[in-house]
Amino acid sequence: MNNPVVSVVVSSYNHCDYIGACLDGILMQETSFPFEIILGEDESNDGTREICIKYAEKHPDTIRLFLRSREDVIYINGNPTGRFNFLECLKAGKGKYIALCEGDDYWTDPLKLQKQVDFMEANLGFGICFHKVKLFNEETHEFLIDTITRNVNEITNIAELVKGNFMHTPSVMLRNDFTIPAWFKESPLGDWTLYMLAIKGRNIKKFDKEMAVYRQHNESIWSKKSKEYRVSNTLKSFSLIYDNLLLPKDPTSLLREKIKYLTKVINQLSK
Fold first, then answer.
1. According to the model, what pLDDT value does residue 263 have?
2. Which of 147, 150, 186, 271 is buried most deeply by CB count within 10 Å?
3. Which CATH number is correct for 6-221, 3.40.50.1980, 3.90.550.10, 2.50.20.20, 1.25.40.10?
4. Candidate ranges 21-35, 138-152, 208-222; pick with highest mean pLDDT
């Protein structure tokens, strides 16, 4: 596809039980414009790769499949991540907009992309839009109230974003006019760092409708990580933004204060 309006970036690793629902939720989208799926498969060992290949073969005009190697995995703080796969998928996107959906999440509204693109086309002062999601706990098999993200106003900007992330990945659409710096590979908070790079002084729109499902796994629930893990990773990402990204005065001041506070907490935890 030469001129997609939206590139949907899907990063997948060991998602054999979920990737089908993820791709089906994207393929069911009803749009007045062409879109592509940039599917990066990170050399899974559970059969995910084979499922992705079948979907790509069945939908060659929509899915662009990239088969990665674990030899290219980027380590952050000594831990293997999907950052290389994600970065390469972002680079491959040809669309005017980038929509995100991890391989274990899925969309539920067939008009999701149309609604988001219609808004972005009509409101050039907005760089990001997102919407509410349902949470599904894979351990209890229950849908939960979203207590992970902060509740923010319908319209926000970098002054709110600089405090930390409040958008679930499968809900986000960005204008594809950002540049990824080399230091992005070092940031533990990849999603939030990407949004900080993409916002460019523009506003953020929140849709007050649930149009996707975010799956919670025990190993991926942020609140279940140790306090030291959460604070140290947040501090590193905040510091990278502070040191490398030119921000307006007020967000810069707020970020500086948060870094001071997180540094104090880390010092106390390490005693």
1. 95
2. 186
3. 3.90.550.10
4. 21-35
